[in-house]
Amino acid sequence: MRNLRVFVLFMLGTLLCLSCDKIRTEGEYLRKIPIYSTLGEQRKMNIEIQKPIEFNRTGKIYSYKDYLFIMELQKGIHIYNNANPNKPVAIGLLPVLGNMDIAVKDDVLYADSYFDLLSFDIKDATKPKLIDRQRDRFSRSTFAFGILSSNVNSDELKIIVDYKDSLVTEEYIGTYYPQPGLDMDGNSFSEGGSGTGGSMARFTVAKDHLFLLDVKNLHLLDITNPSKPRYLKDIELFPGVETLFPYKDKLFVGSTTGMVIFDISNPAQPEKLSTYSHVRACDPVVVDDNYAYVTLRTGNTCGGSNNQLEVIDIKDPKKPQLVSEHRMSNPHGLALVGKYLYICDGWDGLKSFEAEDVMKIGEKGLEQLKLGLAYDIIPGPKSLIVVNSTAVEQFDYSDPKKLKKLSSINRSNLN
Predict the structure, then answer these.
(1) pLDDT computed for residue 167 by the predictor
(2) In degrees, to the nearest 5, what angle opens at C-alpha 353 toward C-alphas 351 and 357?
(3) Cα–Cα distance between 176 and 179 in angstroms, integer?
(4) CA pair distance 392, 125, nearest whole angstrom
(5) How far apart are CA 231 and CA 216, in angstroms?
(6) CB of 179 within 8 A of CB of 57?
(7) 283: which residues sit within 8 A by CB, 6+ positions away?
(8) How far apart are CA 161 and CA 124, in angstroms?
(9) CA dihedral 150, 155, 157, 159 (to 10 degrees)
(10) What is the C-alpha separation between 135 and 353, in angstroms, rounded?
(11) Which residues is 310 bridged to in the sheet?
(12) DSSP of 300-361, one letter per residue?
C-alpha cells in the first residue's frame, strides 16, 4: 500500500513538472506589432478622404444634415450619406488619427487629432478639405505616449499609427493583449447650422461657440466665422470631466463625480451656477426644462459602484436636487424625446420608458431591444440612431412606443 502511495505521488509530481514545462515552452505566436511614427511626421501629411473600408470597432457618432459620422479609434471618421436611413451609403474614411470627438457648424467639421484641433470644410462631404490646424490645443491625448507640457516638443512624441501581424518565436509568459483598452466615454438637438452628437460627446456647439472638454479643462472658442475658430480661454474644472450637453442658455457638464451647470447666456463668459455631486461613476446627461437625467454605471474606468438612472430637479439651476432613482443593468448613453426616454443599457440593449412622471420612470418601461453592447444614441430628424460595439442601428421612432428597425451599418457591410 505504501508503495502505491509513493507511485501516485511520483506520477502527480511528474505531471506537474510537465505542465510547468508546457507553460514555458518556446513557440511561434501571431501578434499585432505596433507601427510607430511621430506627431511631427503626421502633421506634415495631407489628410484626404479614402475609399470606404469596414470598421472593426464603432466609436462615437454624430449626425449633420443628411450625413452620419462614425468615429473609429486609431483609424479616423467613417462618413455615410444618410439621406435614406433605410439604406445609408458609405462615402469614405477621413483618416484623422488620434480622433475621439467631432462637432459641426455651418459645413465646418471640427475634430481632435492627438493634441491638435482640426477644421475641415465639408460643403461637399464627399471631399472634406482641411482648412485649419490649431496645434497643441489639448493638453493630453489618449493615443500618444506622454503628456504634453511646457517642456515637451510635441512634434517628437511617438504615436501608434497602425499594427502589423507578425509571427514571433519567444517564451510564452502570459496573455497578450494586442491593443490598449480605450474607454468610450465621451445628446443634444441641433442649433441652427450645427449637428447632433451623442450623450457621451466631449465637443459641442452652442450660440456660435465651440466648447471642448480636455481632462479637466473646458476650452472655449468663438466660431462666429466657422472656418476660423478663435480661441478665447480655458475654464479649469477638475479631473474626471467627461460629457457636454447644451440646452437653451445652459451648458451641462457630466463628470465622474457629478454634474456642473453653466449659464451660457453670454457664451464668451460662461458662469458656473452649481455643482451636483454623486458617488464616483461615469455620467452622461440629457435635460429638459425641469429635469436632468443622469446615468451611473459600474464596470468602467470611472470606478462606479451603482447602475441606475438619477433624475435631478433643475428648475432652480443654482440648487439642483435629486428627486428619483431607478435601477438599471449597466446604463450608458441616453436620449430624451418629448415625454419618452431612451437608455442604452449595456448588454441589455436599448430600453424605452415613459418619462412624464419622473417618480415612476422605472415602472413605465415600454420596450427592450437586444442590440449587443449598446452605448450611445442620437434622436435624428429621420431616425433614432443607436450605436453598439459592432454596429450602428437605425430605427423609425414615429411611434415612440414601438420602434421599427430601418437599417444596420456593421463591419460586414458598407452600404
Answers:
(1) 74
(2) 155
(3) 9
(4) 20
(5) 17
(6) no
(7) 242, 243, 254, 255, 256, 258, 259, 294, 295, 296
(8) 27
(9) 140
(10) 44
(11) 294, 325
(12) STT-----EEEEEE-SSTTS-EEEEEEE-SS---EEEETTEEEEE-BTT-EEEEE-SSTTSG
Q: What are phi and psi of 378, to 5 degrees?
A: -130, 125
- For the record, the C-alpha cell of 112 comes out as 481632435
Q: 77: which residues sit within 8 A by CB, 6+ positions away?
A: 69, 70, 71, 93, 94, 96, 99, 102, 111
H-helix or E-strand containing 3?
Answer: helix 2-23
Domain map of the chain by residue range?
Answer: 31-170+184-410
CB atoms under 10 Å from CB of 262, counted, come to: 23
Single pTM value for the model:
0.84
Dihedral sign, Cα of residue 341, residue 350, residue 322, residue 234: negative
Buried-exposed string 146-164: b where 16+ CB fall within 10 A, e elsewhere? eebeeeeebeebebbbeee
Identity of the residue numbered 394: Q
User: Residue 309 CA to chain centroid, in angstroms?
Assistant: 19
Characterise 133 by phi-psi region: left (phi > 0), alpha (psi -120 to 50), beta (else).
beta
Using alpha carbons, select from 300, 296, 354, 353 the residue that is nearest to residue 329.
296
CATH topology of domain 31-170+184-410: Methylamine Dehydrogenase; Chain H (2.130.10)
**Tens of pLDDT along 59-110?**
899 999 999 999 997 789 999 999 999 999 999 999 999 898 999 999 999 9
| Beta bridge pairs of residue 114 | none
| Residue in the structure block whose three cell numbers are 450605436 | 387
Cell numbers found for residue 350: 436599448
User: CA nearest 194: which of 267, 104, 101?
Assistant: 104
Grid coordinates of 411: 463591419
Mean pLDDT by 10 residues, the chain (415 residues): 44 40 51 82 92 88 95 91 97 94 97 94 97 89 50 76 73 38 36 72 95 90 96 90 93 89 97 84 85 84 74 97 94 94 94 95 92 92 93 96 95 62
Cell numbers that stand for 412 in this block: 460586414
Q: Are 199 and 336 in contact (CB under 8 A)?
A: no
Cα angle value 195/198/203 (rounded, 5°): 65
Query: What span, in angstroms and rounded, lies between the C-alpha atoms of 202 and 189?
Result: 15
